[in-house]
């Protein structure tokens, strides 16, 4: 296995910082709770960043499932189970 410097997820500080910020604001963004200039920055990053786009997709699915289950807020355990199920389905 060849190690490629700078290609690992934690090896690029610029990208991971942007991603961390986008993921930090993901819930706010989906709640439409973010103020516009900031929301636009995060949205623009997510649209051009595959891992963040995927994370946003999963988050939206979770919200949809939770809403469908008529819960205003999913318990952490249920939420984690849904997320891991979605993740497994995507990989397989
Ligand atoms: Zn990203």
From TrEMBL:
<protein>
    <recommendedName>
        <fullName>Putative zinc-finger domain-containing protein</fullName>
    </recommendedName>
</protein>
<dbReference type="Pfam" id="PF13490">
    <property type="entry name" value="zf-HC2"/>
</dbReference>
<feature type="domain" description="Putative zinc-finger">
    <location>
        <begin position="19"/>
        <end position="52"/>
    </location>
</feature>
<dbReference type="InterPro" id="IPR027383">
    <property type="entry name" value="Znf_put"/>
</dbReference>
<dbReference type="InterPro" id="IPR024020">
    <property type="entry name" value="Anit_sigma_mycothiol_RsrA"/>
</dbReference>
């Amino acid at each position: 296995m060849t190690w490629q410097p700078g290609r690992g997820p934690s090896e690029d500080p610029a990208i991971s910082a942007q991603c961390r910020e986008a993921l930090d604001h993901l819930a706010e963004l989906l709640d439409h709770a973010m103020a516009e200039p900031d929301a636009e920055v995060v949205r623009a990053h997510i649209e051009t960043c595959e891992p963040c786009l995927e994370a946003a997709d999963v988050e939206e699915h979770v919200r949809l499932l939770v809403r469908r289950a008529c819960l205003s807020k999913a318990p952490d355990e249920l939420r984690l189970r849904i997320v891991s199920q979605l993740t497994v389905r995507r990989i397989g």
